[in-house]
Amino acid sequence: MRPGQLILPATAALLFLLSGLTVTSGCNKALCASDVSKCLIQELCQCRPSDGNCSCCKECMQCLGNLWEECCDCVGMCNPKNYSDSPATSKSTVEELHRPIPSLFRALTEGEAPINMMVVSFPVAEELSHHENLVSFLESLDSTHQNVSVPGNSIHASYDNQDGMCTVVYFDDCVSIRQCKLYCESMGGSKYRWFHNACCQCIGPECVDYGSKAVKCMNCLF
User: Fold this and answer.
1) Residue 18: what pLDDT?
2) How far apart are CA 188 and CA 101, in angstroms?
3) If 0-12 CB within 10 Å is exposed, 13-18 middle and 19+ buried, where does residue 164 land?
């Protein structure tokens, strides 16, 4: 049998497996499909912990990387998630970028928005209102628990900039967290917020906290 004849049945079987997992477990297809396909093709997630066989668990976790928590149910490694209880749009991962280029970010977001992106600006005071609610909550915990970490004074030092505008960029399509970080670095962004429905937001240098908590990616809203 020629190699080409083997590839087609294998591909068909993989697509059938992915579609079945998506239906039975509520797997987040938009977020997980690409990485899950890669891990299944490499046969790194073939064991079943529910049957007492966890011989591939470590390799599967390494393959899925940052997507393990969101996608482990897609490969039968953990219990199915109930996304109706906690929608992916309500959760996000944020990170500061080590080498922002403010002038580049401003140049790319001024005037007409680049293709496949949406530029949104809002008052810095709107950002600070969310942050102050978090600080107040943490400070209330700190009064009884000494090991609670409360943000430092850097955010308060920026209160003089409350009248400024925070500018963020949303990409229209769903992307992985790795793509989100890479795109935001290439735009000169200061930080990024990756929503767990795979919507990506790049955060500009004038933003004091982590941009907006609203999902506004046109093709990646759910």
Assistant:
1) 45
2) 4
3) middle
